[in-house]
Design goal:
single chain; 402 residues; alpha/beta; Nucleotidyltransferase, domain 5; 8-stranded mixed sheet; 6-stranded mixed sheet; 14 strands; 19% strand; globular; binds adenosine-5'-diphosphate
């Protein structure tokens, strides 16, 4: 029996999301999450899939730390006959947010790699520490199988210097590793490849603009399967309007808030990352609420929606210019996959760029990859559900079985 299962772990500061996949047929055996780790009201939701074990289970009660969280997950999996001590487990794949310039591909984690991921914490203080904790706990649990890091930044490592560098003093930039790294790379990689497949082409044959619109949002320009630009930068703050992040703004806004508003760097950081975007403009970060309120004529929600769409259009235009020829514009993630009004508004008026929507196809709700432009359109518009867990499992499995 060859081991073909991969456990995918996405560890956040107070949460762990997981999926167990069988790479023999790319099926999902179980999925779940632990949230509010470290609080009294921690919650574990576990769902065995593909006919395995019992039904969906939920438990609340204190889970002290990531170690306890992963042990609780292991117990749930064991109860379904999917124990992590199984010889069928081939690897654990870890989502790691920041790989800096050092990590451009999935990497088997040893002590040295772990130290390097830790050294990248200053670039991703909100994310890498939790990723490191998840790796440490999983290594402890199964020291005998490979632990693989799959980096959110890796797919963007091909972005040329002229798109990656900020136009600032070169010595200062080098000293502090200031450049554009980009994020959501696992999703952009998966979706751009799936979009090529939807068009019946190889990734090398097509140029694609991917719009990953979740609570965080980013755009990328992918030429022949290779990423050449993306909207997030040194951190996930740059680019599109997001649920709670501002995206692009004049950096002088920060000086102004500090000098005139008397705000500290931490206060401004929190303002721009957590209290801006849709939430900041209208009080709701969930696009469903924004759409509902805008539909009722709520002025703040309408303006927030218009601002979100305006930014999206600017990136579609910019990446059309970057790519020269565009074969497809692809929507993905929570908003991109589900919000037909966002897709409609984003491409409205862009006929000159070859973008036309089939309104009926756009209105269909589906979990499948699909075209939402007429067959005659010069540029295909598509919806492709992202699957970061499958992509992480695939990359990890390929690495350890090669
Ligand atoms: P995350 O960035 O947290 O991974 P997701 O990709 O899951 O986010 O997207 C979550 C967001 O998707 C929610 O905040 C919500 O705004 C949006 N969303 C989900 N379903 C819908 C829907 N039917 N219509 C509009 N927006 C939706």
């Amino acid at each position: 029996m060859t081991a073909s299962r991969v456990l995918v772990l996405n560890s956040g500061s107070s949460s762990v999301k997981y999926q167990l996949l069988d790479m023999a047929d790319r099926s999902r055996l179980a999925a779940g999450l632990v949230e509010r780790i470290g609080e009294e009201t921690s919650r574990l939701v576990h769902e065995p899939l593909a006919g395995a074990g019992g039904g969906r289970r939920e438990q609340t009660g204190p889970i002290a730390d990531h170690d306890a969280a992963l042990k609780a997950v292991a117990a749930e999996l064991a109860a379904d006959g999917l124990g992590l001590d199984s010889p069928e487990l081939a690897a654990v794949g870890h989502r790691v947010v920041h790989g800096g310039t050092r990590f451009t591909r999935p990497t088997v984690i040893d002590d040295e790699v772990l130290a390097e991921i830790r050294a990248l914490v200053p670039l991703a203080p909100l994310h890498n520490p939790a990723n490191v904790t998840g790796i440490e706990v999983a290594r402890h649990l199964r020291a005998d199988i490979p632990q693989v890091a799959v980096f959110d930044t890796a797919f963007h490592s091909t972005i040329p210097d002229h798109a990656a560098q900020y136009a600032i003093d070169a010595a200062t930039a080098a000293r502090y590793s200031v450049r554009r790294y980009g994020f959501h790379g696992t999703s952009h990689a998966y979706v751009s490849r799936a979009a090529a497949a939807l068009l019946g082409k190889a990734p090398e044959e097509v140029n694609v603009i991917v719009l990953h619109l979740g609570n965080g949002a980013s755009a990328s320009a992918v030429r022949g399967g290779v990423c050449v630009d993306t909207s997030m930068g040194l951190t996930p703050l740059e680019g599109l309007v997001m649920g709670t992040r501002s995206g692009d703004l004049d950096p002088a806004v920060i000086f102004h808030l500090a000098r005139v508003g008397g705000m500290s760097v931490d206060e401004i950081d929190s303002l721009l990352n957590k209290k801006s975007g849709l939430l900041g403009m209208c009080g709701d970060n969930d696009m469903r609420e924004v759409l509902r309120r805008a539909g009722e004529g709520d002025e703040a929600a309408r303006t927030a929606f218009a601002t979100y769409i305006h930014r999206l259009k600017k990136y579609i235009g910019a990446y059309t210019a970057v790519l020269g020829r565009v074969d497809a514009v692809v929507f993905t993630a929570g908003v991109g996959e589900n919000a037909a009004p966002v897709r409609e508004a984003a491409v409205a008026g862009l006929e000159e760029l070859g973008l036309v929507l089939d309104r009926e196809a756009n209105a269909v709700r589906s979990g499948e990859a699909r075209l939402i432009s007429p067959a005659s359109a010069r540029v295909a518009v598509a919806v492709v559900p992202t699957d970061e867990e499958l992509e992480i499992a695939t990359q990890a499995y390929e690495l350890v079985t090669r």
